[in-house]
Amino acid sequence: MNVIPVEKVQSYIIMGELALDSRVIPISGVLPTAINAKQANKGVICPRGNGVEASWVKNVSILAIEKLTDIIRHFKGEQLIQPVTFNYSAAPKEKNSVPDIKDIKGQVVAKRAAEIAAAGGHNMLLVGPPGTGKSMLAKRFIGLLPDLTEQEMIDVNIISSITKAGNETFKVTRPFREPHHSCSMPAMIGGGKNAKPGEITMAHNGVLFLDELPEFPRLVLDSLRQPLEDRKVTIARANAHITYPANFQLIAAMNPCRCGYLGDASRSCNKAPKCGTDYRNKISGPLLDRIDICIEMPNVSILSPEISSEGESTENIRKRVIAARKIQTERYSKFNIRCNAEVSGEALNKFTEPDQEGLELLKYVLKENYISNRGYTRVLRVARTIADLVKSEEIKRAHIAEALNYRIRMYK
After folding, report:
1. Residues 6+ apart with CB under 8 A from 330
2. What is residue 45's predicted lDDT score, i.e. its pLDDT?
């Protein structure tokens, strides 16, 4: 038709959905396309509703149009379109106000476990009767984590772009996803007609919180096993295989039994101990084996000294977490590893060797079958984090003992 000369548009990647009245409708996936355009040294022509999102990529010419005729007038010189530019300071950003961890009265051991989990990127399971603060702690956990790096921020916004059309809110905080226990396999892992990302991808670079863990369908829980190891998930379809990132931190919570009061001194479980055993058996051993830290949160009496004492604030704990993460970033700079939870292979052998007393303790628990081979590796990772929190280059017996304490609780 030669309405617009080809040579004028061939330096642009053009995207959008065209309506019958010539309007150009916003679409999803604009941000990753704009990144590809930059790599190809091209500009972007996109719907006006996607203009802000596309402009998050620096040094790319963005022409955002309302109707198809806008681009025709632009290239004919009749009415020029002003390129969209991104002003970071003025852009609308996702707000994430996290409550302070000091709101939780008592539970000193659980808070210590949360600090270790945050410092090393470890998965954590909270077990206790209703009302002990499991969900409160999980929802405050995100506040302990370091800020997103620039690359992590880009990844988070790319995932958001894939799932949402016309996104103008720039995400600057770590995602916190908490799907209901009725969540299906495609909703958790990803899939459906267009192989959309699931909850584990939406939680990439953030936290996936699974409350009432045994209430999730067994198949859904077991589908987490491979992504927890690989930190990615591949969705297979008849005509394509799509791999999404899934580097999330799993925080889970559960009651000790179906009625919730097994082991609670104030109330009794009528079917103990079978009630607790049957309830825990809803979670497979291989999934439990991939959880680094398990902590019990008992009921704390209102008369307990723990309740009256002022707990540490999120900000104070977060400072120690950031200091430990900085040590890990420097240590693993040559290994493409962000934190201790990701350590394997050469880096594991090089940086997680305990002292002689610690090694003897580990050999003993391994010989007595208290931990599996995978558990052995995860204990070393947690112990490395505990050592980092006190700026100790050497992993000592005390560090190993504390890490084992969190691990062996799973099999009591």
Report:
1. none
2. 92
Task: Answer for the pair 266, 257: CB distance below 8 angstroms, yes or no.
Answer: no
CATH fold, domain 6-86, is Ribosomal Protein S5; domain 2 (3.30.230)
Asked if pLDDT for residue 284 goes beyond 90, the answer is yes
Which residues, at least 6 apart from 250, have a Cβ–Cβ distance to it below 8 Å? Answer: 123, 124, 207, 208, 210, 224, 228, 291
331-410 matches 101-307 in CATH topology? no
Q: What is the CATH number of domain 101-307?
A: 3.40.50.300
Q: Per-residue pLDDT averaged across 77-86, rounded?
A: 84
CB 398 within 8 A of CB 377: no
Residue 67: CB atoms within 10 A of its CB come to: 16
> Mean pLDDT throughout 286-290?
92
Q: How far apart (Å, rounded) are the C-alpha atoms in residues 170 and 156?
A: 9
pLDDT tens sequence across 23-79: 999 998 899 999 999 999 999 999 998 988 888 888 899 999 999 899 888 988 888
Question: CA dist 29 to 60, 158, 204, Å?
Answer: 16, 7, 17
Burial class (CB in 10 A: 0-12, 13-18, 19+), 372: middle
| 222-240 tens-digit pLDDT | 999 999 999 999 988 777 7
Q: Where are the domains of the chain?
A: 6-86, 101-307, 331-410
CATH number of 331-410: 1.10.8
Extended strands (E) in 237-322 = 241-245, 249-254, 293-296
